């Protein structure tokens, strides 16, 4: 989608979709947090991505069949799947290489973010993860004035360090996990650009999610939770939590953000997503009973200021994620998928 396609549309509708996306992500994260003590963050990551891949893949297949049916070419579509716009069997080695890199970064980004959520509050984890896209945007702009926003981000991290030593106890390993997730978020943004150029259609998103799920299976086996996965067959509530995590943390945010981009300029969209740490902090308090002290609010505000500032000065979008759960993002954002979902 080009920026021009969002002009003269309904900005209020776009803002509503962004709010839906942010709220959905936080509910998905809250569901996931309740699953961590049972299955561990890595296995929850596998389940989330795998179920999301199945859901998106099914939607792509149904959408493709429907389009073929309407075009009166259903037989041809079924006979030569590799030549359809959404087919992945006909991808070249270059396309597969780009998709594998994209999928691995997607999986590790979500895995480390969930490990951060298992140790630190939701709002803090989201704010720290933002440093990855922020640093990437600062490097790419190469404008000296953008060092102001880098300084804001560094100040935010310094506040967190001060708090860890003198104030409210902070799990430094959790902060480290969030920083690693942010680094993979930056790699995700770069790899998604290649995928967007090389891979047509929406099937790439489903494949990337499946690749991401597979790449974190070893970690799930090395760091298992105390409860065996098959125990969910005896607990309907656990099944609903797992499905809810997948839908609310991946499918709904991706779809909502893509819908928002049809009504908002990308720069406005990214600024709105830059406010997500505040929404995450409020959601952590309301849904999980997580307290955010004064020092953490100062750090979150500094990081948000840096994110909005770099977005405004570069005239482009700054990634934000689910999605992310982080994923997701407008590439800026782990949240907005570089590959459009079926309409």
From TrEMBL:
Ranges of Basic and acidic residues composition bias in the record: 325-334
UniProt keyword Transmembrane helix present: yes
Primary site of residence: membrane
Pfam hit, one: EamA
Mode of membrane association: Multi-pass membrane protein
Top-level taxon of origin: Bacteria
Organism: Rothia aeria
Name used for this protein in its record: EamA domain-containing protein
One GO cellular component term: membrane
UniProt keywords, alphabetically: Membrane, Transmembrane, Transmembrane helix
Tagged with keyword Transcription: no
Subcellular location: Membrane
Domain named EamA: residues: 173-311
Similarity section: Belongs to the EamA transporter family.
Annotated transmembrane regions: 12-36, 42-63, 96-114, 120-140, 147-166, 172-189, 201-223, 238-256, 268-288, 294-311
Region feature Disordered, mapped onto this chain: 314-343
